[in-house]
Amino acid sequence: MDTNKLMALLPDIVAFVTVVDSGSFTAASQRLRVTPSGVSRQISRLEAALNADLLERTTRKQVTTEMGKVVYEFSQKIIDSADDIVHVTSQELGEVTGELRIAAPKAFSRRILQPLMLEFLAKYPKAKLRLMVSDEFVDPFGHNLDFVFELTHFPRENLVAKSLGHTNAVLCASRSYLQSHGIPFHPDNLSQHDCLYLNEQPNDNVWRFSKGGEDVKVEVEGPYSVNHSEIRLNAVKQGLGIGIFPEFVVEEAIQNGEVIQVLPEWRVISRYQGEITLQFPQSKFMPARRRAFIDFMVASLNPEP
């Protein structure tokens, strides 16, 4: 496609992204200040140029096709680049403007990231944050993300990684449960206890521990499994069994005496522990908003002594 044809498609690309983001032609037309029929013509023109259906149109809403999802991701990058061009002078002056898209694990988002995001927006009112909450690793390239938070000992090799601290996994139970069922003094004892586990993956009921040179693996069972830390913690508080959590999830409950740490001398090996790592794609040009976000998170989560 030659440059003239590509330039002619740019308004249609903007219209397509706006329709996907807003969810309908009507909402998109209001944002673009054109008629719904005008937006529809732009989408049809783009589909014809690309020889692909991008939206499945129904009477109530528009659903993005599989090809439409791919085109949307690339189109969003075009718009982001244009936005960076528009704001390049303000970036040079250090003004924090524009949108940041971030992915982070559920419990970390709820307990740690949520208040920090609000503080960042209060500090930089011209910035916009878009948070995707998922316990699965979200590829920043495929989802057009600026940053990905991950609790891991092994950051992704194709991304820049910034360590923001460390979190451990903690085994705990309520006082009432331990009074009724006894206190385990070795990980092997857990096979005789009610244990609440994630049930996200087939081996989630296999718990691993280490102490000194000893490594222990134990298969546990229990009446309740759920992949939501807050729900699982409430069950532990109610005396339903023993659970494993990132320490930032149970820190307050331990301090309040609602739960008690079990086997504190043993290291719990869990995939929801390790370095709190902020990861992002390498880029020659880093907008002020990205630099500000990195500096803010470093100062908030890993402040200097």
Automatic annotation (TrEMBL):
The keyword Lipoprotein does not apply. It comes from Vibrio chaetopteri. Residues 1-65 form the HTH lysR-type domain. Keywords: DNA-binding, Transcription, Transcription regulation. CDD domains: PBP2_CrgA_like. The keyword Transcription applies. Belongs to the LysR transcriptional regulatory family. One of its GO terms (biological process) is DNA-templated transcription. This is LysR family transcriptional regulator. The lineage of its organism: Bacteria, Pseudomonadati, Pseudomonadota, Gammaproteobacteria, Vibrionales. GO terms for molecular function: DNA-binding transcription factor activity; sequence-specific DNA binding.
